[in-house]
Amino acid sequence: MGSEVFILMKSEWALMGIIFLLLFLKVTETIKDNTALFRLTNVLLLLNFVFGFFCNSKGELFSGMYITNDVLVLEKNILNFGTLLISLLSCEWTKTHKNLAEFYILLLSTLLGMFYMLSANHFLMFYLGLELSTIPLAALANFDQDKVKSSEAAVKMALSSAFASGVTLFGISMVYGSMGTLNFAEVPELLNWGPLQIMAFLFLFAGFAFKLSAVPFHLWTADVYEGSPVPVTAYLSVISKGAMVFVLLNVLYNVFRGYEGIWFQVLFITIIVTIIVGNLFALRQENIKRFLAFSSIAQVGYILLGICSGNAGGAAATLYFIIVYIFSNLGAFTVVALVSAKTGKENINDYRGFYASNPALGWVMALSLFSLAGVPPTAGFFGKMFLVTAGASTGSYILVSIAALNMVVSLYYYLRVVKAMFVEKSDAPIEKLSFGMAPKVAMAICVIGIVTIGFAGCLLEYITNLFQ
Amino acid sequence: MPGPLYIALIPLLPLITFAIISLVGNRYFPKFTGILGTTSLAISATISLFTAWQYFFVEGSVNGVYQQIISFKYTWLEFSPNVSIDMGALLDPISVMMIVVVTFVSLMVHIYSLGYMKGEERFSTYYAFLSLFTFSMLGLVLSSNIFQIYIFWELVGVSSYLLIGFYFDKPSAVAASKKAFIVTRFADLGFLVGILLLAFHAETLDFQTLIQRLSTPGDYLNGIISASFLGVSALTWGLVLVFIGGAGKSAMFPLHVWLPDAMEGPTPVSALIHAATMVVAGVFLVARLFPIFAMSCPVALDIVACVGVFSSLFAAIIACTQTDIKRVLAYSTMSQIGYMMFALGVSEYGENGLGYMASMFHLFTHAMFKALLFLGAGAVIHYVHSNEMKDMGGLRKFMPITHITFLIACLAIAGIPPFAGFFSKEEILTAAFHSNKLIFGLAVTTAAITAFYMFRLYFSIFWKSEHHPHHGDDHHGEGPKTMLIPLLVLGLLSIVAGFAPFHHLVTSDGHPLHTEFHLLFAAGPVLLAIIAIIVAMVMYKKESALPGKISEGLKSIYQAAYRKFYIDEIYLFVTKGIIFNLIGRPSAWIDRNIVDGFMNMMATVTENFSDTIKPIQSGKLQLYAVWFFAGLMGMVLLFIYLWA
What we know:
Radius of gyration of chain B: 28 Å
Distance between the termini of chain A: 29 Å
Number of domains of chain A: 1
Oligomer: heterodimer
């Protein structure tokens, strides 16, 4: 094994290094100043992101329990990038918290869990990663300790996660029961279409659907999103979801490939209810975080549309869309985080007249929402176009037309926010906000991403080549 | 054979300038933006000249035949291995000539505008728009892909719209920009359908492949010819539709109505867009697809010729009656572009491709003297603050340089040797003579009329008696140096451009063309032009009652021509009277009551359904778990018992 352990697991080692460094700083109380800690952590995260592009190799460790390859490296880089953006956008929020080091330790622990989950080639490894990525999230949801809603979110998160974990574990035990192995590589040959195996698959899928907040496993989402601090909400809706999509892609395409006939049907139903219910609930939300929660549920429906195609094009479109989604959703969350941290306002109606007082923020928000809605020529349009094209390649036009119809519905509620910001007048509008460099950088990156990514054909090409 | 990459700089520099000016220049250094734009374009023009020199004299030709060189090509969107939208640069004689013309005229206009637009409130916006336009136009002429040309075609349309409507506080300017945009939009629709039709049958969007497949006999050509609609082959439809697009941009009858109104824009803009570059895009397009026109579909080429020669004569007649000097120039532009069009129309591919060469030649010389005319007119307008002829007169004493350069340009457009226009016009007339005597006759008539109205313009501005308000106080007679230098440079070029060896350089198939010069043949049109000039001199050099009498005598014709043959009124009748009332109103009713009604119903249904499922999201964790489990069990039941 020797040095392989360090080379192949380098992303995990890097994260662990940062976590232990922060832990050390915390315990020794070397840095008391939040600003300094914030800067240090962001520099570390930036280095971590950059480091992700170097010294990459393929291989497996621990008798095949852990693997890594080009696709996984890209996926980890995407997650690193998203985490960096979230860290930047939480700038104003972090100023008010005593225990900033804990926040980052918990956050990076979940990210580490996701990395293990991604690289898992064995159900046990996968389960360990899943737990590591879930439990600290409940603590994070409770980070606004003085707020009742935050505690509520944490409790709901912890209990529902426990429930979902139970279901997943049950599914894993059924896999073992019917096949006698938990190794991803051995499962495909042992698929025999027995009821126990199908049930095992469905239980596992329910666990995934829970993390992805696909309907009807989504009910925790809105309450948790609403109660959690904004950066945590952003993290839940982008990184946690993105990681889960990558794992699902791997499990469906590589482990349960033989059950394509079944999982296509499962996804078919899930997509339809997810998109419709997500959109219908998003229509009526007044709290902007709940609104983004339901909109992200609908987005998951579109992501699953890409996955259900079952071919390399669909996988590439999915990965591409996650990148687009990171830019678009985090652009919106940056603005929400700023407003929330500075004024405590979180309702859509509070955003009336927002454009007049904060034109730049208004534009960022509008652009992000347009991208989420898939209005050309933003990146979101191209992302959705590729997803729908992938979905259409299955020949299931019912699915595609439902997705297309719902895009129209979603346009309505995204524009509702834009209308509140740009058109409506308010007696007590949000005043002009002043904020530091970090959120500005985050917004600039998001805006550039939204505007340019759709035209960078080379990105999709690169991803497609990875899957060939 | 890959070409040099620095070609990319030619269009990119103006684009970068546009970005800089509009993002930061506007705010931080508004005064400096003019210099910035001019400098970057000067670099661009230098690279263009260098490219042209490299192409024409160093490496462009193989065994004396000019090659098509793909300088670079970047696949932007790939639909299938065969069909992709590329962004690239295709170098061949016409595109190289066009980049020189575009950058050069644009540079002159940039320099000129430093003086002309000085003190203008939106000075830097103006330069941003100019840069955007130059970028689009360069992208258009360099296109290696028919879809790329369409994208830039639209960009050119947009930037032209922005520049025409530059004085957006003037209602007439707003109306004119809208008109130009809408009219060309209709034409562009034809263009798009034409592109799709050609590309569908040729299974490619790439210019070289497309032309190769559709101009040489083979499966593709047979396929597109045998497919027919309303008894006309798909090839003819495609080419005619593409030509409609070209006719819209090039202001050919009956899509010319926007061009005279477009004179509402700042005068230097008219010189750049509506004289030298954008309006010749249509000619360029036909020339680009010329092998297909000439070898596979002579019918479409005949249409080009007829439309061209008719527009040419039609515009020349109208130009005789207009009193706004910019409008006279606008109609003369339309007339000259008609010349280029029919020259293409009467041409053949290869050895008998005199018309093609002549058309490109005329495009080149016309760009020089027409830009000069507009810039001269701009100087005059700058001085008298009016566009109307009656406010001018006797200006030769106050603006000697403008006067001389304007005279040179008038002589050039009238086709008097040895000025530039003479040579290109003579080639066109020769080409027409060998092809179709009727077209030749009309062309000669047009040439005479052209000489007449140009000198009517010249004498009315610079001779006659003085009407303008600034008597002798000479506060800014000639305008600043920045305005004079372009005039002098262009004046010089209008004299010498005719000696360019076009028949060696720019031909339809890249082979040098052998041309003969017949003194007697050339003498006829020149003689006619001189007679026309003398007539104009008699009528307009001094104040006289003669023009009034003649227009009185030909009252009905004069009125019709003055009212531009009522084309605008016809359009208005068709759009307002027929389309609005018979189509617009009924569809508005359907839209309001049936379409909206359906949408409202959808919205109500959605909202009600949303209300119905609201209780699911109760906030109670136990219930969430119940739903979770119910969902899971539902799927288990479905897939294990029902579906399996």
